[in-house]
Amino acid sequence: MKVLLATNKPFALEAVERIQQVIESAGYELLKLEGYSAKAQLLSAVADADALIIRSDMIDREVIAAAPRLKLIVRAGAGYDNVDLEAATAANIIVMNTPGQNANGVAELVFGMMIYMQRNGFDSSVGRELRDRRLGLYAFGHVAKEVARIARGFEMTVYAYSPTLTHYDLRKEGEYGVITAYTNVELFSSSDIISLHMPLLDETRHIVDYSLLSLLPEDAMLVNTARKELILEDDLLRIMEERPSFQFVTDLKPDRHDEFTEKFGKRYFSTPQKSGAQTSDSNKNAGIAAANQIVAFFKKGDEQFKVN
């Protein structure tokens, strides 16, 4: 049994060592393709793999066709839109994710980016504090719950809206300390800062548009650590042109990054590469979870985190 760890953006060394321990303790062989630069390398490496651990690596029909032995793909992280689920299903390959394992790392980045923007990139000019600002969480999964937890320490008022949760889930007394928004319109109307935490689905693509952004105050901030395709970039550019105090900070470089940079200066910031899960802690948590899920699948038939 061969498990391929294929990561264009490598895990921390400690995480790789722990993954190897789990896989080899189960009697399996771990193959490694780390920091590869060409798709051809991936196509060659998957040929002998029975299971595959990836991060944000693209697993399309071509990759799946090159892997005749493959039975399981585990995305070490929550989002899995980088895997062609239809092609995987047609090839009888199970796809799993590792929800929650990177949540704290991403949540801490949210606050790092918010502080950076509120302090004007630490350029010594007069900035703002987070205390008493209203934070709106668009979706309320694992990362958003961690953001809500941290926000309590900043004494922020936190609103949350998620179309996939019941209102009772959001209103559990004292558990998350959030105020339920019953629609996305109510969420944007009630918030100074919006943080996006939803997956990319057909129904969420370009969901953040001018009509929602216009509900925010003049000096609002939009924070994105989820997926760039959630935002209609034309509409965000329009809002930022109309409102000279509006800020946008993102962990996903927009398609029109150069235009945002040229037009808005310090009101816009994008991380050079996606950084939310780039901590040794998140690497270890997600990597070990992926390895354990592979072992449980082959030893026990456990499909708990199946997404296709």
What does this structure look like?
- The chain has 308 residues and is of the alpha/beta class.
- 41% of the residues are buried.
- The protein contains 12 helices and 12 strands.
- The model has no long low-confidence stretch (mean pLDDT 94).
- Helices cover 37% and strands 17% of the residues.
- It has 2 domains: 123 residues, NAD(P)-binding Rossmann-like Domain (Rossmann fold); 168 residues, Rossmann fold.
- The strands form 2 sheets. The chain has a 7-stranded parallel sheet, with helices on both faces. A 5-stranded parallel sheet has the order 2-1-3-4-5, with helices on both faces.
Question: Concise description?
Answer:
Helix content is 37%, strand content 17%. With 308 residues, the chain is α/β, with parallel strands linked by helices. The radius of gyration is 20 Å and the shape is elongated.
Keywords:
single chain; 308 residues; alpha/beta; Rossmann fold; 2 domains; seven-stranded parallel β-sheet; five-stranded parallel β-sheet; 12 helices; 37% helix; elongated
